[in-house]
Amino acid sequence: MGKQRAFIKSNRFVTLVWVFGIVAAWELGAFFIANVLHDRMTQSKLPFLHSVLATIASNAGLLGTACLTTLSRAILGFALGALVGFALAVFMSLFRSIEKIAYPYLLLSQMVPILGLAPVVISIVHKVKFGSVTIPASDITRIIIAAYITFFPVATNMLAGLKSVGEDQKNLLYMYAAKKPAVYVKLMLPFSVPFLFSGLKIAAPLAITASILVDSLGAAGGIGYNLTYSLYTGTYSIFWASVLCSATMGILGYYAMVMLEKACMPWQSRAAAGGSK
Under a CB-based contact definition with an 8 Å cutoff, are residues 150 and 78 in contact? Predict the structure, then answer.
């Protein structure tokens, strides 16, 4: 326990050093532009961090609503994409013919830039009604694009995990008359969990970025809408506040997966703490 606590404290110290370094670099950069270069456009190029934080505090309601709008759609798309990626990886590992057919298309799908794909999806998707509830087309587009971004890293990492299980380990279970479903449930899926979380940690910030991109292309709300609107109107204080909120959401998305990974695999933290002595 003592080694584990020391490891956690060390990680927290490193995180604090990074945060302090970023804050110091930002403030020094803003000071250099404003007071050394005497640039009158400091507020648009790089405002002081404390002024950005003050803008966030004074516009907490506006920015909070925008963040919730973007984040909720990103979470839905992330969950959908993770489920599709997980299922696709399992099917590709079960049936090699599916892997040979599907994998090239997976790679090809990632060659399409999101900036070009999003307007196409926006033009195709229409609002959906469930009784008295209407889901706007922009919300559906956010979810689709976030899922599209998510499924590839999840599928490829999960597939790599499933394929990395040793033949000796599988043969041992087969020797005990285990069927293929039992081999997957008892060996291959648990073995692949670290690989799955590697994909989820990559995909989580990307899903949020995809949702922000759709916001900026025609949605009626969201943090991306704030970014675009503030640029058009010249309200750079809101622009930089939205940028900081966007970065914070991406970081939180990543660390949410880190915390979930630790909850699902507590032995990993203990092993890391033991290896750091």
Answer: yes
